[in-house]
């Protein structure tokens, strides 16, 4: 089976940097996705990694280490609107194409 | 460009009834995925449709079923509703053929409450 772990909750201060970690154990890795989900809303796509290294997109960056089964999402210059759940999802090589999601990390940004 | 749309927004049913949820993908997307998000749990994969065919299903009982229409919209049917079926049901669409970077885009969801 697939196992994806993330911290349940995190709190950070406006203007700061926060790193949300995700570890996974899957059979046949084929990419890792990060989504942001505000309460009561749809998940929105943030980033995708399939090769080791860092992908940067404005204030958000995502890192992947396939050998360690580890990824993190880095959020810089935190804003109040960044308060949301951040979902880590893995796609596997079974041809099934669906994503396996962690339970999400609820980030609260405080003034 | 319009995003993924779902209807209804909310649905209240009683135990034993049937629920039908609908999804329209982004224009040009042929794949539709259904996920269940129960309170406190991560998104759980339900079904994947592509080009009108069911391609894969998650670990859910057969009373969860669906179909995809020629215009690529999709329907999720849940029969013999149980209290634990209460959840947010999310639909996502993607465009196959974009290779390893194929990304799923989600709709706003249907919140199903079973009483």
Biggest interface and residues each: A-B, 23 and 27 residues
The largest sheet of chain B is: 7 strands, mixed
Report Rg of chain B.
14 Å
What's the tally of helices of chain A? 0
Topology of this structure?
The complex is a heterodimer of chains A (111) and B (115).
Chain A: E1 3-5, E2 9-13, E3 18-25, E4 29-37, E5 44-49, E6 53-57, E7 60-65, E8 70-75, E9 84-92, E10 99-101, E11 105-110
Parallel strand pairs in A: 2-11
Antiparallel strand pairs in A: 1-3, 3-8, 4-5, 4-9, 6-7, 7-8, 9-10, 9-11
Chain B: E1 5-7, E2 10-13, E3 19-24, E4 31-37, E5 44-50, E6 53-57, E7 64-68, E8 74-78, E9 87-94, E10 105-106, E11 110-114
Parallel strand pairs in B: 2-11
Antiparallel strand pairs in B: 1-3, 3-8, 4-5, 4-9, 5-6, 7-8, 9-10, 9-11
What would your notes on this structure say?
The complex is a heterodimer of chains A (111) and B (115). With 111 residues, chain A is mainly beta. Chain A contains no helices and 11 strands. In chain A, the strands form 2 sheets. In chain A, strands 2, 4, 5, 9, 10 and 11 form a 6-stranded mixed sheet that branches. In chain A, strand 7 (60-65) and strand 8 (70-75) form a beta hairpin. Chain B is mainly beta and 115 residues long. Chain B has no helices and 11 strands. The radius of gyration of chain B is 14 Å and the shape is globular. Chain B starts with a strand and ends with a strand.
